[in-house]
Amino acid sequence: MDSTNSSRANLKKYIKIGRKWRFVPVHKQNGLPYPGTVIIDGKPVRSNAGTFYLEYYEDGRRVQKPVGQSPREAKDAWYAKMSLQCSKHTSERVEENQPPELATVASAFYRFVEEARATKEDSTYRAYRRDLEWVEANLERNLTTQVGRDDILRLLTKGRDSGLNAKTVTRRLIVALMALRSSGAVITLKRGDWPKVTEKSVETYHERELLKFFAACEPVEKLLFQTFLCTGFRKREVNTLTWNDVDLRQRTIRVQAKPKYKFKPKNHEERSVPIPTSLIRVLSARKRSQKESDLIFPTPPHPKRPEYGGDKPDEHHLELCKRIAWRARLNCRRCSSGARSCARGPCCEGWTLHKWRHTYATNMLRSNVDIKSLQILLGHKNLATTERYLRSLGVLDLRGKIEKSNIADWIKTKR
Length: 415
Known about the structure:
The protein has three domains: about 5-95, no CATH class; about 105-180; about 205-400, hpI Integrase, Chain A, CATH 1.10.443.10. The chain is about 45% helix and about 15% strand. It contains 15 helices and eleven strands.
């Protein structure tokens, strides 16, 4: 068996076609498998049922190994096998005193994602995986040392032509460069290669919106979003909050690691955030009435699924936020999410969880909290990240001066 065949691994799927069970190949694009699609009679077909098999050669013999029923299991098994085959083949070449076999892009990306899985937050791991999957699908190279500046520029062009914004494409390529360079690739870019990214202005909720929103809330819903508003916490910082994080006497809520819920603070920075006495009173009352969970906001029970809910973080706060906004008739009625329109249902893009954080930060600055203190409250690693709120605040504070300007008076007299 030559080295080319011994380092190859293919994905197949065992599915029922008509009345017979058959093995069919998984669709490939640019050398990468896409397990959601199989090839039947030469045509790509979407497939949900069936079992995936990994086919490879070991010691000259063909091996077919079942690797699960989900596309993610299948793709992870393929990446793992390709990484192992690549490493084994490389060591064989080195022992023969020949130049080492160059690492494949697929194995470099797989190792990088697995390292992120072990050392980063789960959300970061998933984001890296999505970014690198896009790069793999669009990068026309197989070996890491084949990738150069021209390939990166081509990816920038592909991203722009496919409608992605410059910030998204830039982030994906930065992740790809980290993965490639960690495997020994040398890729040098020039100063002007990266596209200019327009910094979005900070969007906040207005007082009228908040009054209508809270008026449409049930008591627990109101407490949940008051917590978002009064702490500036991120999604995972809120949905993993436990009663041990709340100091009723000091009137603070602490962000700290919780291995039980696989939560680590962003930038590994634990912090305590003071909260208003009014919120402490409501939290204290909820603590007295809630006995079943350590979490302040656990997943609510499901009427038909007894295993659902209980002592697990609630992952549906964003959907709840949009439902309450719809209930309060606060949808903008202009945006759409896929086939859904916010004029007909709870999917308004103007209602996000991070907007509560923006509202908190902007109001802290307007209440004369200094920028360095706000950086600590928000858990930002770099002060520059916090300073973007100053630019937004400057625009808001100009509103009163503009209303008093001669231009405003001129429009009034001319009407």
